[in-house]
């Protein structure tokens, strides 16, 4: 027995040594043992490398030297028994283009007969198609080509990879003509086609529904436009479904809530409408639901309450219009609840305290009112809380101050009020982002208060902090975002404050009473600095060349602008948006714009600048907004401005510019939304090229010396004809104080900022234009304001004027229009300002609620009758002759007065012609003088008629 045991032990030792030796042989390639790297496969990899572009030399270990073991090469994984290559991990893990592979994919990969894992993701095979020979690599179980810039049609031969378990083809450049080729991938568990163009794949749902092993399906952002009916649901294994960012524009399909084992459902941004369909009570496996950014209406569906294991529910950016149901507070496993941007109303129930697992809670942009319930303080796990843009009132700190884990708090734009003391913040030691602007809080702390937190973002706009500067700010050394606009601070900016700003990406101290001089502004690269609407004095400060936005408007900065713009010319400026308007700046517009080539918005309005607009302004080829209104500029506009082809707003009003309106404005500035040349000295005709400005929404040429007729091609101004909301590019609506325009409407100047993009107006008043108002002008159906007053227009009011149903303000006064008011004007139901006075109009004022509600002064100086005038019309619609008075003496006096004023007028004009007749020999003077005389005659005539 003992001898047998010795034999057994000896045998075990022999086998152990043999096994270890065999393993070492495999690892080290001992002669006589099977090599780890097959020579044919090594050669295949070397051929593959030859066609590959490798700018970062990531495959430096792939060498052709004898004895080099390819199983030890970077990215290569071999079977430790057979030595065959099983996996190639050639994905780019670095987020840099320089380290990406490119070039071609050599067919030598076909020699890797045992390859089951191929990852080429996050590379740059730009202009390269997915090789069709991939479909012959039938041993593959894992193929990842995501984000590698392959383009073209996905080869159908990939459907031959019957062993595939994982397929990732994420790409912005790939497309398909159908998806039938996928039907053969019966073992597929993971399919990711995100961003692939599937617009032609009408069979997408039927095909994927027949994949019995599918666990995860991602077809987000694939240009899908329909969800076909699905009579039979075969998604028995499906756990994750993502169809986000497709434009289905339909009711939400019922089948998505009938997949029994579904755990994650993401349908964000799909344009689904109507209510959420009923959800089967058997669907209890869901843990994550994201239906945000749709148009879902109605109430929150009560069937969700059966999903007690739900951890994330995102219904934000929809149109739910109910109160928050009580059952929602029973989902006590929720960690994330996002209900932002709906129409939810009512108050938060005290049952909110049941959601003790909640970490992220977003109710922003609703109509929730009332105080915050005390029970909210029980949410001890809460990290992020956003209740901004609601109607909450009362104080908040008693509750919020208990949430010790809070890092992000946004309570902005509510109706909170009251005093806030340092005690309120004593437990908020983890707070990083505190956004509370748009409330009426008063902060009461001592000058030596040391906050318990280190904030990164702080926005307290509209709080009462002043008049002293908040000294506790010097403790917040981690700030990158600070906004204290409109907080009543009345002081200078302390020197120590600029030591904090070198890391600030956003600084807003506007609308305070800050004063003194600013020598130097310190800020982080690519930052926003808004110091507008204060009381600063002195010269403009030195600013970092890396600033993105700078607003120093509405103060009392003075002196020349030369040094601000023209010093340090060797340093290219990164500034994109600059607002220096409404100051006391002097000197000429600088001529060194070649260093400011990134400017997109420039506002120098309401200063005392003089001289010409320099040619170098044409270097600003990305300029989208130019405001030089109300300065003392003169001369002709430089032709170089036609290089600024991205201009969207040009406001040059209130200067002394001369010459004709440049033809190149219509040819080169095709993106114009606003053209304001008001109150200058422009003369001549309006060039027909202006009609090419398809995006023009505001045209103001009033108070110039323009002559000629209205171009009939004005009906080509598409933006004024289109009833859609706006033709504006969103890139210029970044800062409303920069992007503001003055529009004269209803007889008054109005400044439009945030709603500027919705305004559509035309003003040609106070010029010397003549001829008839073209009927084509009535094609501008979207115009809200039209002013042609104080010109010499003749003929009738266009008969189709009533089709311009959006008109709110219409002024044709002080012209020579005749005929009747067209009956179609009764259709102008939005009209609140009308002036047709002092023309030659006759007949009855059309009867409508709108016209009769207007002031009588809108119609004086014409031969009109009917309400709202006190002149009654006869049966045929004309003014009846005056009744002869019983007292003959009175009638004689009336006749005598008439002849007196007529003879007075004749005598006056006879003398006027004798004295000034010689001037008429000069044709330009003749035109101007005749226009002036016409106006004088009309006014005197109307005075006589009114008296009679």
TrEMBL record:
Q: Name a GO CC annotation attached to this entry.
A: plasma membrane
* PROSITE patterns in alphabetical order: LRR (PS51450)
One Pfam family of this chain? LRRNT_2
Q: Which residues form the Disease resistance R13L4/SHOC-2-like LRR domain?
A: 304-484
Which chain regions cross the lipid bilayer?
Answer: 899-921
What membrane topology term does the record carry?
Single-pass type I membrane protein
Q: Which Gene3D superfamilies match?
A: Ribonuclease Inhibitor
Domain Leucine-rich repeat-containing N-terminal plant-type spans what residues?
40-79
Is Membrane among this UniProt entry's keywords?
yes
Where found, per UniProt? Cell membrane
ATP-binding: present as a keyword of the record?
no
Give the source's domain of life in one word. Eukaryota
Which controlled-vocabulary keywords does the entry list?
Answer: Cell membrane, Glycoprotein, Leucine-rich repeat, Membrane, Receptor, Repeat, Signal, Transmembrane, Transmembrane helix
Among SUPFAM superfamilies, the record links this protein to: L domain-like, RNI-like
Similarity annotation: Belongs to the RLP family.
Name of the molecule in the record: HB09p
Which organism was this protein described from?
Pyrus ussuriensis x Pyrus communis
């Amino acid at each position: 027995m003992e001898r047998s045991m010795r034999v057994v032990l000896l045998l075990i030792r022999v086998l152990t040594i043999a096994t270890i030796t065999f393993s070492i042989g495999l690892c080290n390639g001992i002669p006589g043992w099977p090599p780890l790297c097959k020579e044919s496969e090594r050669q295949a990899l070397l051929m593959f490398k030859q066609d590959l572009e490798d700018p970062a030399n990531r495959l430096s270990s792939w060498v052709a030297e004898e004895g080099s073991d390819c199983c030890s090469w970077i990215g290569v994984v071999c079977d430790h028994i057979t030595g065959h290559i099983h996996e190639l991990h050639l994905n780019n893990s670095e987020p840099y283009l320089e380290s990406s592979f490119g070039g071609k994919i050599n067919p030598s990969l076909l020699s890797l007969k045992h390859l089951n894992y191929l990852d080429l993701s996050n590379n740059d095979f730009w202009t390269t198609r997915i090789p069709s020979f991939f479909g012959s690599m039938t041993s593959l179980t894992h193929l990842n080509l995501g984000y590698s810039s392959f383009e073209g049609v996905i080869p159908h031969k990939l459907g031959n990879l019957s062993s595939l378990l994982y397929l990732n083809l994420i790409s912005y450049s790939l497309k398909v003509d159908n998806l039938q080729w996928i039907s053969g991938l019966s073992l597929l568990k993971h399919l990711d086609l995100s961003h692939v163009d599937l617009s032609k794949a009408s069979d997408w749902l039927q095909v994927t529904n027949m994949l019995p092993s599918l666990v995860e399906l991602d077809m987000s952002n694939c240009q899908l436009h329909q969800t076909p009916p699905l009579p039979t649901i075969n998604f028995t294994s499906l756990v994750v479904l993502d169809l986000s960012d497709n434009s289905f524009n339909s009711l939400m399909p019922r089948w998505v809530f009938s997949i029994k084992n579904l755990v994650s459902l993401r349908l964000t941004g799909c344009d689904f409408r109507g209510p959420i369909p009923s959800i089967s009570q058997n669907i209890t496996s869901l843990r994550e639901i994201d239906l945000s950014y749709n148009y879902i209406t109605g109430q929150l569906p009560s069937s969700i309450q059966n999903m007690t294991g739900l951890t994330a529910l995102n219904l934000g950016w929809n149109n739910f219009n109910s109160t928050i149901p009580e059952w929602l507070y029973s989902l006590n496993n929720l960690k994330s609840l996002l209900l932002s941007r709906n129409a939810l109303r009512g108050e938060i129930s005290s049952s909110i305290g049941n959601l003790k697992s909640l970490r992220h809670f977003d109710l922003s942009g609703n109509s929730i009112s009332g105080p915050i319930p005390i029970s909210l303080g029980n949410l001890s796990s809460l990290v992020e809380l956003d209740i901004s843009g609601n109607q909450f009132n009362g104080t908040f700190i008693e509750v919020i101050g208990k949430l010790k884990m809070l890092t992000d708090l946004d309570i902005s734009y509510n109706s909170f009020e009251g005093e806030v003391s340092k005690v309120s913040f004593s437990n908020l030691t983890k707070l990083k982002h505190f956004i509370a602007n748009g409330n009426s809080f008063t902060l009461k702390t001592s000058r030596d208060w040391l906050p318990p937190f280190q904030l990164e973002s702080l926005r307290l706009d509209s709080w009462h902090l002043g008049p002293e500067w908040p000294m506790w700010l010097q403790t917040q050394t981690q700030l990158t975002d600070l906004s204290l606009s409109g907080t009543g601070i009345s002081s200078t900016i302390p020197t120590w404050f600029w030591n904090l700003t070198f890391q600030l990406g956003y600084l807003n101290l506007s609308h305070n009473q800050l004063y003194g001089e600013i020598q130097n502004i310190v800020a982080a690269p690519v930052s926003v600095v808004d110091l507008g609407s204060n009381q600063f004095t002195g010269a403009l400060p030195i600013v970092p060349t890396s600033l993105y936005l700078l607003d120093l408007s509405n103060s009392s900065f003075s002196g020349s602008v030369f040094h601000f713009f023209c010093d340090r010319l060797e340093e290219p400026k990164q500034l994109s948006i600059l607002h220096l308007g409404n100051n006391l700046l002097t000197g000429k517009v600088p001529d060194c714009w070649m260093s400011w080539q990134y400017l997109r918005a420039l506002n120098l309005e309401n200063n005392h600048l003089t001289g010409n607009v320099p040619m170098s302004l044409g270097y600003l080829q990305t300029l989208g907004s130019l405001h030089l209104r109300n300065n003392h500029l003169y001369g002709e506009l430089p032709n170089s401005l036609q290089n600024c082809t991205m201009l969207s707003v040009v406001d040059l009003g209130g200067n002394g510019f001369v010459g004709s309106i440049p033809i190149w404005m219509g040819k080169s500035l095709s993106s114009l939304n606003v053209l304001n040349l008001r109150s200058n000295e422009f003369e001549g005709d309006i060039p027909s090229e202006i009609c090419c400005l398809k995006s023009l929404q505001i045209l103001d040429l009033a108070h110039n010396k323009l002559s000629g007729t209205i171009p009939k091609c004005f009906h080509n101004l598409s933006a004024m004809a289109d009833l859609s909301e706006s033709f504006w590019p969103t890139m210029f609506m970044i800062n409303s104080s920069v992007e503001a325009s003055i529009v004269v409407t209803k007889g008054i100047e109005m400044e439009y900022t945030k709603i500027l993009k919705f305004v559509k107006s035309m003003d040609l008043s106070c010029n010397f234009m003549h001829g008839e108002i073209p009927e084509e002008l009535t094609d501008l159906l979207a115009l809200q304001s039209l002013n042609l007053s104080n010109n010499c227009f003749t003929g009738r009011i266009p008969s189709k004027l009533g089709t311009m149903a959006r008109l709110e303000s219409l002024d044709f006064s002080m012209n020579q229009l005749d005929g009747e008011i067209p009956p179609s004007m009764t259709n102008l139901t939005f009209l609140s300002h009308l002036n047709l006075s002092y023309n030659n109009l006759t007949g009855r004022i059309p009867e409508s609620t709108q016209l009769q509600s207007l002031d009588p002064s809108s119609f004086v100086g014409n031969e009109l009758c009917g309400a709202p005038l006190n002149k009654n019309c006869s049966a045929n619609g004309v003014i009846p002759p005056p009744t002869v008075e019983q007292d003959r003496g009175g009638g004689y006096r009336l006749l005598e007065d008439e002849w007196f004023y007529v003879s007075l007028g004749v005598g006056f004009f006879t003398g006027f012609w004798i004295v000034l007749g010689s001037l008429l020999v000069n044709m330009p003077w003749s035109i101007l003088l005749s226009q002036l005389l016409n106006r004088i005659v009309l006014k005197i005539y109307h005075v006589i008629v009114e008296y009679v």
